[in-house]
Structures are given as structure tokens and as C-alpha cells.
Design brief:
Layout lengths: L1 H8 L1 H31 L3 H29 L1 H15 L2 H4 L3 H33 L4 H26 L2 H19 L18 H34 L10 H24 L1 H19 L4 H15 L2 H10 L6 H29 L2 H28 L1
Length: about 375
């Protein structure tokens, strides 16, 4: 409640946080349409995974390009124009008329997604540094709100309209109209946001450990985003009208957790909080694997609670690495994490093709276990020192 009041009273911070909402709303709408696009093009889970691989490839390509653009135009302007480009390439998968055109459209969609993710997290880090305020976790809560609304309403609107292009056009128009009215709050922000090559490689080593945790968790989060609907449809045999409920439950739990993340971090410390969060995520995945609609959706909710604070805490840890600027560390994590977010669905696609989606979610449980053991070890070292 206090977090919502904070953004209501400080509209300049709401403007940048609302970008997370826009990002997630678009992405979650795409997620709900994946089964429909698969049916339209007559492609299997494995082929979907291979197609989504092109998103990851596009994201990887964009990481190298971002540093040059942001230095020239400034992080605020770059974030705003990255949103516009993201909205444009959002149309690509819906206009694809063959498997090859789907792969090509997802490549450009991945580029746009990576660009927007890096610039948005870099903008938030710049605001924190310049205004000496902590809003990273609470800003990420708006991503969860967008995902919750997009997933919960997307499937219903899709069935109601029977016109994906009309649906996404209305969505894009509303988002851009709002952003054109509030962009002045962040548009002129300028700051260094990408790691420079002259940084001491020794200083970067702590970032690699943090990045692994972020990467593993975002692999799982991306997989849930892209495959939860298909999992509920094909494994749980849920009605088409309700297949968005898994991601909606996940996102609503993420929202709750992120609005409380800052206070939990202060009381427990980052590594201890990540340890507990990963353990909660593992329990949630075990519930998802139970072949019951209610229990599986509850499982997605529990996974969301566990995942909610991990990524913001990863950014927080990266911002405190000695010898690395706050914005540099955050940008490095944003880049690697976004790759994980896009690679996750690819990995699940390959497993689903050879075996089943049920096994794919078992693999995700193992992935989260890796992050748990890393966090447990780091927390143990911290307590001994």
C-alpha cells in the first residue's frame, strides 16, 4: 500500500515504472497468442522453441549495439524510442504467414525486446543514482502488474474479438498515447549505463556469479511466460478461455512480492532473501507438476512469490560491486538476464519436442535448484565473514 502511495505522490517515478507495465503488457499478450499462432501455422512445440531461439539471437545481437546508441542519444530518449520500436515489431509474429517468416519476425522482436529491457533497467538505475532513491524492486512490480492484466484479459479478448491485429493495435495505441503524455518525466535523463572495456576484469568476477543467478532465474521466468499457456492447454487440458490464468497467477504473485521486496531485503540481506525465494520457487514448481488445474495454477502463484524478488535483488547486488559503477553493473545484468528470458523457452521447446512439456517443467525445477545452491553458498560465506 505504501509503495502504491509513493508512486501516486511522485509521478516522475511513476512515469519510468509505468514503462515496465507497458513492456509486460505487450509481452504477456504475445504469450497468450502463442497457442493460436502455433495452430495457425501448424507447428509443434519443438518448432515453436526453435522459432523463439531467433528471439534470443536477436537479443544477443542488440546487446553490442545498445552501448553505442545510448551514448549518443541519452538513456531517457533511448528508452522512449526503444518502446516505440518494440511496439512496431510486436506486430511481426502476428503477420507471419509461414514458419520462416515467424522466425524472422521473432528475430527482430527479440532485438527490440532486448533493447527495451536494457534501456529500461539502465534508466531506472540512473534515476536511483541521480536522485539517491531506491525504486528498482517497486518498479519491477509494475512488470508483474502488466503481466497479470495482460494474461488474465488477453485470452478473453482474443476469443471475443477473433482479430489479433485489432487487439494489439488497440493495446499499442493506448500505451503510446499515455507515454507521449508522461515521457517528459524521464525523456531527458542522461547517464553512463554500459560496462566499458577498460573496466578491470578482476572487478567483473563478482558480477559473473550474480549474472549466473539472474540468468538461471530468467531462463525459468521466460519459460513460464511462453509455455504456461500451452502447458495448461495440452498437459492439464484446461479450456482455452482459462489458459492465461497460469501466467496471471504467476504475475499477480510477482507483483505482491515485489512491492514488499525492498523491506525484506533490508531485514534479511540480498543473498539470504534469494536463498529463501529460490526454495519457494522449487516448492511452486512441484505443485505445477501435479496434474490438477487448481493445484497447477496455485503452483504458478507460489513460483511467482519465490521469483518476485530475485531479479531486483540481482540488480541490487550488481549495483554494489566494488569498482563497478551502479549503472554499469545493472546494465550488464540486464543484458545477460534478458538473454536467459528468451533462451528459456527455446530449451523447453527442445525438451518438449523429444519428450513432453511435463518433463520440461521438471527441467525448470532443476534450473531453480542451481540458483538455490549458489545463493545458499554465497549466504553461508557472507555469514561467516
Amino acid at each position: 500500500m505504501n509503495s502504491i502511495k509513493f508512486f501516486y505522490q511522485n509521478k516522475k517515478y511513476f512515469a519510468s515504472a509505468f514503462l515496465f507495465f507497458c513492456f509486460s503488457l505487450i509481452f504477456s499478450t504475445w504469450v497468450t497468442y502463442i497457442p493460436q499462432i502455433a495452430d495457425k501455422l501448424l507447428i509443434t512445440e519443438g518448432k515453436i522453441g526453435k522459432a523463439i531461439f531467433f528471439s534470443a539471437l536477436g537479443a544477443f545481437v542488440m546487446i553490442r549495439i545498445c552501448r553505442h546508441i545510448v551514448d549518443r542519444v541519452g538513456v531517457g530518449k533511448y528508452t522512449f524510442f526503444a518502446l516505440i520500436v518494440y511496439c512496431i515489431f510486436f506486430y511481426g509474429p502476428f503477420l507471419a504467414y509461414s514458419y520462416n517468416t515467424l522466425c524472422l519476425s521473432l528475430f527482430f522482436f527479440g532485438m527490440a525486446s532486448s533493447s527495451f529491457a536494457i534501456s529500461l533497467n539502465s534508466l531506472t538505475a540512473t534515476i536511483e543514482k541521480q536522485d539517491e532513491i531506491y525504486i528498482m524492486s517497486r518498479s519491477h512490480a509494475f512488470w508483474s502488474i502488466g503481466g497479470m492484466i495482460g494474461a488474465a484479459t488477453g485470452s478473453f479478448i482474443a476469443v471475443l474479438l477473433h482479430n489479433p491485429i485489432l487487439h494489439i493495435s488497440i493495446l499499442v495505441a493506448i500505451i503510446l498515447l499515455i507515454q507521449f503524455r508522461i515521457k517528459f518525466h524521464y525523456y531527458h535523463r542522461i547517464g553512463e549505463v554500459l560496462i566499458k572495456e577498460k573496466n578491470n576484469k578482476k572487478n567483473l568476477k563478482p558480477l559473473y556469479v550474480i549474472a549466473v543467478v539472474g540468468l538461471v532465474m530468467m531462463v525459468s521466468e521466460g519459460a513460464i511466460a511462453d509455455w504456461s499457456a500451452l502447458y495448461l492447454k495440452k498437459i492439464i487440458l484446461l479450456d482455452m478461455k482459462y489458459i492465461g490464468f497460469g501466467y496471471a497467477a504467476f504475475s499477480s504473485a510477482m507483483m505482491i512480492g515485489r512491492f514488499t521486496g525492498d523491506s525484506l531485503s533490508k531485514n534479511l540481506g540480498s543473498w539470504q532473501l534469494i536463498t529463501y525465494s529460490c526454495l519457494t520457487g522449487i516448492v511452486g514448481f512441484l505443485l505445477v507438476l501435479i496434474l490438477n488445474p487448481v493445484i497447477s495454477i496455485l503452483g504458478f502463484f507460489v513460483v511467482g512469490l519465490g521469483f518476485s524478488v530475485v531479479v531486483p535483488e540481482v540488480y541490487r547486488l550488481a549495483s554494489k560491486v566494488e569498482g563497478i559503477k551502479t549503472s554499469d553493473g545493472v546494465s550488464f545484468i540486464a543484458a545477460t538476464s534478458n538473454i536467459g528470458f528468451l533462451v528459456g523457452p527455446v530449451l523447453l521447446g527442445f525438451v518438449a519436442e523429444f519428450k513432453s512439456l511435463h518433463l520440461s517443467f521438471m527441467v525448470l525445477t532443476a534450473f531453480v535448484s542451481i540458483a538455490f545452491f549458489i545463493a545458499f553458498a554465497k549466504n553461508k560465506v557472507r555469514r561467516m565473514n
